[in-house]
Design goal:
Number of strands: 3
Helix content: 25-40%
Radius of gyration: 22 Å
Number of domains: 2
Shape: elongated
Mean pLDDT: 90
Strand content: 25-35%
Strand order of the largest sheet: 1-2-3
């Protein structure tokens, strides 16, 4: 892990197109601004971990439990 010290309004560049800027520091809270291309997804770690957990749970669905789903959807479409 690389550890850097930055003050307010100082930045860190990652690669060629991601910039992290220290926006403000108040007590033990630090606000960070992230300037990155829209194609780069940026998440808070706890949100990202929840997404991973949800995806893992969804992948565990038993395919047999979905057998009748096609029939149900066809029936709804006709209505």
């Amino acid at each position: 892990m690389l550890i850097l010290t930055r003050k307010e309004n100082e930045s860190i560049i990652i690669g060629d197109n991601i910039e992290l800027t220290i926006v403000s520091i108040k007590g033990d809270h630090v606000k960070i601004g992230i300037n990155a291309p829209k194609s780069i997804k940026v998440y808070r770690k706890e949100i990202y971990e929840e997404i991973l957990k949800t995806n893992r749970e969804a992948a565990k669905v038993n395919p047999d439990s979905l057998k009748g789903l096609g029939d149900i959807l066809k029936k709804k479409k006709k209505e």
